[in-house]
């Protein structure tokens, strides 16, 4: 098992440190995982042991950036790690910090470029995603990418600037496969609201929307046989605003199919 290490990155406006779990065999793909509001890479990374130590992902490096600490309007100005300011917690209808969102997306674009420049991993071997707020930044990064990405995943998350999707999406942004996992007991980012809006997003991107039965176990051969393109929305029973082992197992399978070891 490779030990994690902290690295300093130098993208625009000095993104804080990243926690990196090196690949355990020859490095041929990278996954970037963004935490949610108030969390950090130091706290989240160890909780995702099932993912970054999965036996099908020996060739994958995992990068966990930590957001800057900033005052949050909806939290009465209290400071905490956050990718952008939150003016309210009605994710579907609130006014959004568009400048902050784009700044955060630029940091992730820089990390993707760094993988190619410094480590020889092309963008189409990089998967980005995250939990809640981290997933929203990843979605914006994927929508606005000027390079092909292997895929983007959202866990208990939401689409930022969703009324502007048609204006901002690039051709590469329409091509990235999407894994969307959401707990059916999520009251913070409401499950029923965002399942509907996820289907709206698929329509805007003109990609298939697939919503498998939550009682059916994901099978690798089914993904390989039927293809992995489109937005796959996975529902998890009895799961609130977080993740569980089943979701991480599904995500690991999805990642392994997208960036199969070479």
TrEMBL record:
Transmembrane segments: none
Catalysed transformations (reactions): S-hexadecanoyl-L-cysteinyl-[protein] + H2O = L-cysteinyl-[protein] + hexadecanoate + H(+)
Domain of life: Eukaryota
EC class of the enzyme, as a word: hydrolase
Single GO MF annotation: carboxylic ester hydrolase activity
UniProt-listed InterPro entries: AB_hydrolase_fold (IPR029058), LYPA1-2/EST-like (IPR050565), PLipase/COase/thioEstase (IPR003140)
An annotated GO cellular component: cytoplasm
Listed EC numbers: 3.1.2.22
Entry-linked Pfam families: Abhydrolase_2
Keyword Lipid metabolism: yes
Record function comment: Hydrolyzes fatty acids from S-acylated cysteine residues in proteins with a strong preference for palmitoylated G-alpha proteins over other acyl substrates. Mediates the deacylation of G-alpha proteins such as GPA1 in vivo, but has weak or no activity toward palmitoylated Ras proteins. Has weak lysophospholipase activity in vitro; however such activity may not exist in vivo.
Protein name from the UniProt record: Acyl-protein thioesterase 1
Organism: Hebeloma cylindrosporum
């Amino acid at each position: 098992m490779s030990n994690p290490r902290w690295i300093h990155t130098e993208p625009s406006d000095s993104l804080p440190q990243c926690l990196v779990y090196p690949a355990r065999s020859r490095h041929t793909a990278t996954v970037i995982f963004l935490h949610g509001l108030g969390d950090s890479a130091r706290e989240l990374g160890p909780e995702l042991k099932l993912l970054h130590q999965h036996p099908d992902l020996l060739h994958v490096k995992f990068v966990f950036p930590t957001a800057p600490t900033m005052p949050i309007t909806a939290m009465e100005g209290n400071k905490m790690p956050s990718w952008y300011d939150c003016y309210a917690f009605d994710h579907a209808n609130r006014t959004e910090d568009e400048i902050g969102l784009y700044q955060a997306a630029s940091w992730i674009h820089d990390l993707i470029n760094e993988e190619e420049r410094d480590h020889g991993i092309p963008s189409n071997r990089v998967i980005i995603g995250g939990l809640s707020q981290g997933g929203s930044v990843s979605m914006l990064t994927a929508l606005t990418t000027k390079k092909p990405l292997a895929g983007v995943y959202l866990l208990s998350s939401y689409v930022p600037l969703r009324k502007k999707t048609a204006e901002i999406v690039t051709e590469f942004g329409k091509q990235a496969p999407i894994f969307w996992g959401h707990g059916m007991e999520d009251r913070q980012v409401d499950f029923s609201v965002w399942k509907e809006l996820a289907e709206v997003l698929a329509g805007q991107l003109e990609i298939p929307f697939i919503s498998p039965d939550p009682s059916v176990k994901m099978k690798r051969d089914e993904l390989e046989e039927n293809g992995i393109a489109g937005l796959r929305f996975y529902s998890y029973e009895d799961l609130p605003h977080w993740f569980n082992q089943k979701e991480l197992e599904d995500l690991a399978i999805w990642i392994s199919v997208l960036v199969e070891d070479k």
